[in-house]
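Researcher: Please predict.
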Amino acid sequence: MVIKVNFKNPEKNIIKNAAEIIKKGGLVVFPTETVYGLGANALNAKAVKKIFKAKGRPADNPLIVHIADKKSILILAKNISEEAFILAEKFWPGPLTLILEKKTIVPPEVTAGNKTVAIRMPDNKTALALIKAAGVPVAAPSANLAGKPSPTNAGHVAKDLEDRVDLILDGGQTKIGLESTVLDLTQKPFAILRPGGISQEQIEKVIGKVNFWKAGSKSVVKSPGMKYRHYAPRAKLILIDYNNKERAEEIIKKLIKENKEKKAKVGVMATDETRSSYPEADLILTLGSRKNLKIIARNLFKTLRIFDENKIDIILAEGFPEKGIGQAIMNRLSKAADKIIKN
């Protein structure tokens, strides 16, 4: 069931009914500022298992626990560093997830058996109202089938999960469009495990230098987005590095020609600046202007889904500079890509 909720002033009766579902061990999909989340009572192991079943998510892929007030961090975590409180004060509510040592109250199903727990406080009135009304922390990965592009509106959720959950709260389009930044505070130096809505530069202004976890490193999987292929459309996605504009467009035009000759339906994920550069493609979709990477981020997952809706076989995607939120955009595109071409 999908119910629309006023994103500025969530209706109390709708929130109350959704909270009752959480309390009883059910699944509720709700909007956040990043993407839509598939929520269950984080302290109820049976309820948490339902999340994995609904998504088809591997059990060794940990979940993020969402809270509605900063004090709740004390319920879930121990040995909390001073930096954690500083970051929470600066960025919560907001798209920053902190990895901390967990207390035994957090079931191993939430953390994939790890001794750490991922915690964040979302910046969305519906999400916060739901968590407060439920009276428990809410474990919630993105509300999509495992591996697919994350949902940034309720329509995306319904296509993937409507018959697998108890309720979908429709709060409109999400503001950021990419998942939260995940920062591990249980290792020194601190490390970003997944880039997102809070940039590395923003974090370093507050607590100093942090490392960036690179795919392929041998480490415990403490965060979503570290181990499995994520965010992928049905179509084959080829990511073309954009450091050299002329060379990148030359490669894309060549790939369009080659794949059209093979009778493949070819789409190009372009920008406002380049949308007219690929007239031979079957479908050209623009993410927005390269001058505004926040808009690019907001449109990314939605655009990948549109390509699939149009039964595109090959998606050729332009790359972006890995600065600010561009780091998160390229992380998602790299995770979704079948092939990456450097130039």
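Model: The mean pLDDT is 94.
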